[in-house]
Design goal:
- The structure is a single chain.
- The protein is an alpha+beta fold.
- It contains 14 helices and 15 strands.
- It has a 5-stranded antiparallel sheet with strand order 11-12-13-14-15.
- It starts with a helix and ends with a helix.
């Protein structure tokens, strides 16, 4: 009877905890190994080691959260540390553990993990797992993890003078099955678009041929909103502030010496003002694609190195008023204006757009977005522990960056790839532009959004009113900056 009472007392004086274990999304993230967990409170008191297993369920599968119930002594309070491990009963059985959440009497204690769990290795993690190196209670574990990451995240330089790229892509950076499916689906859709074009005309001999693509019964392509507007000057100007590359327009307070424009050429488009007066009123803007000089161009292709002037009219429209297609002024390099014959002016704008596409795809897209981000991602993985607050802030932004870049290098940017087949500067010119542009890119100038707009003279909405790219990015930048400052100051203020 005494033993029975003792057993009942032991049962009634233990409390139940709910343990939620989330496995990551990466390929191979799940495991069939046995997983063990122990819990520790702030006083250093540790529970027994629990086996997390449900015999009727395949636990710890990729992209899934498994829930377990464990019991500890009723006096076990203030949980702040866990120890997690898995056994080695299956060779090469990897496990990417996203997080563990323990529910204790309605309160959640969160343990972010974000790690590949190796066999027979004990991982000790404190609540929230966020420490500067000197404050980490598990420094030896931290150093071992960083050494392992330096072995995994090896790098090489693909573009001379550019940021580094991954040498061999780690397992946790590879595309998931869902990612691969989405890429394949998009590729099929793109190829279907080509099939539709071939089924209609095979080639375009007129604008009507192009328009007929969207009327074809096999068409799966959306009709462009610009189909009826693309020839208009206001639409051309709108592309500079709301198009795919809205980060080149600058306020112009002085005409470059190599721009062969005279005030008389454009006064008819300045609402009664001279060019000089319009510049004083801050109504003249410029885009100069000088960076395209001396860039490789395929045989029988022409890539201009244009300059263009724009005027802000009374309706807040940015209108093109002058375009010079090459950098050296002279009789063989005229300045074109809206006064030229309509189709001449239209062709000049198309040449300008073509040149800007070379810049956008090479610099804004590939260089400043993909390659620059990958270099930062590799450096972060090699030098900052997953427990570092800076790592935690940056890690979500690295998702799929390395994978998509590796795919691009192997297919799109490879010799004979998409760029070689479709772009006038070919692969060689793209690489030249990436190298050239990244030498000019500065974190404190180009990486600071408000300063970047200020350097171009377009930060003030009174100067350039209708510029949603600026309005949205500055608002986002300020919100992110405030959040990051709050997080950083919380940790670094203790130094």
């Amino acid at each position: 009877m005494g033993k029975l009472f003792s057993l009942k007392a032991c049962f009634y004086y233990r409390k139940q905890l709910t343990v939620k274990v989330t496995t990551g999304v990466y390929v191979g993230a799940g495991t069939d190994a046995y997983v063990y967990l122990s819990i520790e409170n702030e006083d250093g008191r540790r529970s027994e080691e629990f086996s997390l297993d449900k015999w009727w369920r395949d636990d710890f599968e990729r992209r899934r959260t498994d829930t377990f119930r464990v019991s500890v002594d009723d006096s076990f309070e203030s949980i702040n540390t866990i120890q997690i491990r898995k056994d080695s009963r299956k060779s090469n059985d990897t496990w990417y553990l996203e997080k563990i959440v323990i529910e204790d009497e309605g309160k959640e204690i969160i343990f972010p993990v974000h790690r590949w769990i190796e066999d027979d290795t004990k991982y000790r993690l404190k609540k929230y797992d966020c420490f500067l190196p000197q404050s980490d209670p598990h420094k030896e574990q931290r150093l071992k993890e960083l050494q392992k990451k330096k072995e995994i995240y090896q790098y090489e330089v693909y573009v001379e003078g550019g940021p580094v790229q991954i040498k061999t892509i780690p397992d946790n950076e590879k595309f998931t099955y869902e990612d691969k499916f989405e890429i394949t689906a998009q590729s099929i859709k793109s190829k279907m678009g080509t099939v539709v074009i071939d089924a209609t005309t095979g080639r375009w001999d007129s604008l009507e041929d192009y328009e007929n693509i969207f009327k074809h019964p096999l068409n799966i392509l959306d009709t462009p909103h610009s189909l009826e507007k693309w020839m208009e000057d206001y639409w051309f100007g709108l592309q500079r502030t709301q198009g795919v590359n809205p980060n080149l327009l600058k306020l112009c307070d002085k005409i470059p010496e190599n721009f062969g424009i005279e005030s008389s050429m454009v006064e008819a488009f300045l609402n009664g003002s001279s060019l000089e007066e319009s510049m004083e009123k801050k109504r003249i803007f410029i885009i100069d694609l000088k960076i395209l000089e001396n860039i490789y161009t395929a045989e029988n292709h022409v890539v201009c190195k244009p300059m263009a002037l724009f005027y802000l009219d009374d309706n807040d429209n940015i209108l093109p008023i002058a375009i010079q297609l090459f950098q050296e002024k002279g009789s063989d390099n005229p300045v074109f204006t809206p006064a030229d014959p309509p189709y001449t002016w239209l062709l000049v704008k198309m040449y300008f757009n073509h040149a800007e596409v070379m810049y956008h795809e090479s610099c804004t897209h590939l260089g400043f977005t993909h390659f620059l981000a990958e270099g930062i991602a590799i450096c972060t993985h090699r030098n900052l522990s997953p427990s570092h607050p800076i790592f935690k802030l940056l890690a979500p932004h690295f998702f799929n960056v390395i994978a998509i870049n590796k795919l691009a290098i192997e297919t799109i940017i490879s010799p004979g790839g998409w760029i070689d087949r479709t772009m006038s500067v070919k692969r060689e010119g793209v690489i030249q532009l990436v190298e050239k542009s990244l030498k000019e890119w500065k974190m404190d100038a180009n990486g600071n959004i408000p300063k970047e707009f200020s350097n171009r003279g377009v930060l003030d909405s009174n100067i350039l009113p209708n510029y949603p790219f600026r309005d949205d990015t500055v608002a986002l930048y300020n919100a992110i900056r405030k959040y990051v400052n709050d997080v950083i100051s919380h940790y670094y203020s203790k130094l």
